[in-house]
Design a protein that fits this description.
259 residues, 9 strands, Rossmann fold, alpha/beta, two-stranded antiparallel ribbon
Length: 259
């Protein structure tokens, strides 16, 4: 006679590409950033403690991407909503996910104040140098000379100013215990490492954690695969240096021990 065994149900992974393909345009970098984030969450084993918040814009397409608690916020308000969640329940691990418009334009005041207050959250910003969902207009990160729908002759820094160097700004105004880095979807393993450190820093309760991810947008850049990768690796990474800008001493010590 067959014996039926009662097994404890296994919690599914936070991110499963077989069952949840993304909704972004072909070649968009958002899917890669979110893949790295999902893998980081699974490797840290914190899925049941995470609250993920996404902004208006292309980032809102991640609202049902993960198998975990998610909130979709008003444009530019992702950071304060997740700060509120964290303050209401400090045991949660909160992630504010946004685009360059949501973080550096309409949401810039919230990013600046959360960083200055050293709020114990993790903010992730996807930088693709344009307002992608609304047709490819100039964004705070549009590069000098770059053509967009609202800068058809290229961004003129004398009229429109210079691109926002977000991580550099955040690193300058944050306090002890904060973690700040800029990664790129062209080096996904390194980007995942930055995201894991940002989450680990929040878990340890040290301070504000911020990661900017350089991303691709071939639909609005009007580039083929080769041109897209060249723009990302040659032009964007030339203007926006990739690397860690601020690392708490405790994270550095833990990294040396692992080596």
């Amino acid at each position: 006679m067959a014996v039926e065994l009662e097994l404890e149900p296994k919690m599914p992974n936070c991110w499963d590409p077989a069952t949840k393909p993304h909704k972004f345009c072909p070649g968009c970098g958002h899917g890669l950033v979110l893949k790295a984030l999902g893998q980081a969450i699974d490797e840290l084993g914190i899925q049941d403690r995470v609250v993920f918040g996404c902004d208006i814009g292309c980032s809102l397409l991640s609202w049902d991407f993960f198998n975990m608690d998610t909130v979709q916020t008003h444009h530019g308000r992702t950071t304060p909503v997740l700060v509120g969640v964290k303050r209401a329940n400090p045991e949660l691990i909160v992630i504010a996910y946004m685009g360059d418009g949501g973080g550096y334009a309409i949401g810039s005041q919230h990013l600046v104040n959360a960083a200055n207050r050293n709020d114990r959250i993790t903010a992730i910003l996807c930088n693709n140098t344009n307002y992608a969902m609304t047709g490819g207009q100039m964004a705070p990160t549009t590069m000098p000379g770059q053509k967009t729908e609202t800068t058809p002759y290229g961004r003129d820094v004398n009229d429109q100013g210079y691109p926002m160097l977000g991580p550099e700004m955040v690193a300058a105004i944050t306090h002890e215990g904060s973690y700040v880095a800029r990664g790129t979807v062209s080096k996904l393993r390194t980007l995942k490492g930055y995201l894991k450190k940002a989450l680990a820093n929040q878990i340890a309760g040290r301070g504000f954690s911020f990661v900017e991810a350089l991303s691709t947008c071939p639909t609005n850049w009007r580039t083929n695969a080769k041109q897209t990768w060249a723009f990302l690796e040659e032009q964007m990474q030339g203007y926006f240096p990739v690397g860690e800008l601020k690392v708490p001493a405790e994270l550095q010590t833990a990294e040396r021990k692992e080596e």
